[in-house]
Amino acid sequence: MSENALSLKGLTKSFGPAKIIQGVDLDIKAGERHAIIGPNGAGKSTLFNLISGLYTPTSGSVKLRGEEIGGMAPFKINRKGLSRSFQVSNIFANMTVRENVRCGVLYSMGYGYSFLRNIGNLKEVSEKTAEILESVDLIDKANLPAVLLPYADQRTLEIAITIAGGADVILLDEPTAGMSHSETDRAVDLITKATEGKTLVIVEHDMGVVFNLADRISVLVYGEIIATGKPEEVRGDPKVREAYLGDEADGLDEGDAA
After folding, report:
1. How far apart are CA 165 and CA 103, in angstroms?
2. CA 198/CA 217 separation, integer angstroms
3. Residue 90 located in a structural domain
4. How many domains are there within the chain?
5. Predicted model pTM
6. Which residues contact 164 (CB under 8 A, 6 or more apart)?
7. Which residues constitute the domain of residue 242?
8. Is residue 49 over pLDDT 90?
9. CATH number at residue 226
10. Looking at the domain assignment, is residue 97 inside a domain?
């Protein structure tokens, strides 16, 4: 696939006098895994909010497969094939794991809310839900209320919900935040498997995750992209090392061993 999945041109976002995103230009190829990294306060979550419709751009363009989506309502963007997760787990706590995933599957298959339809009779929905739960290793916990899942499994469930909508462009905002090393390793394996054939854009602080997952990396500093390239190119860029002073700069080297 040669078409860009996402294309950002001259993208800016201001809140009053504060200019958070300052003219971002970025093309993300269809089917690639692209990581966006940067110091705290760089504007990474703001950029995700602009792409997914939570914020309206002050200026500039956001295109999904060539179609302008900047300023479009989030649910409309979702229906066009882009889905995202959040830094904080965003699940239906009192529903079962299966029910959480099934909600996304229903909409991906064109079913809306209906009090007259017996969801249990929708074989294709049940099969797709089970397939997704299998792909993220949650099938054994399908009947548990989501609130009873350990934290790492709740994050995994959110990834499953994100995938369940059928989107082919997936945005994950710090999916491994708060996980142990072993939980992070498992999450990377699950994300790799679950997003195969899709376009993945990930914001992540863990450099081991970034260098294990990403085909290309973009570095955002003070609302501007200062470098984009393959992991080995970004790791050796002096501008990037300058932006990551101290421990975070050390983390760029640790990606080799992760």
Report:
1. 8
2. 17
3. no
4. 1
5. 0.84
6. 101, 102, 103, 104, 105, 108, 128, 129, 132
7. 1-81+201-258
8. yes
9. 3.40.50.300
10. no
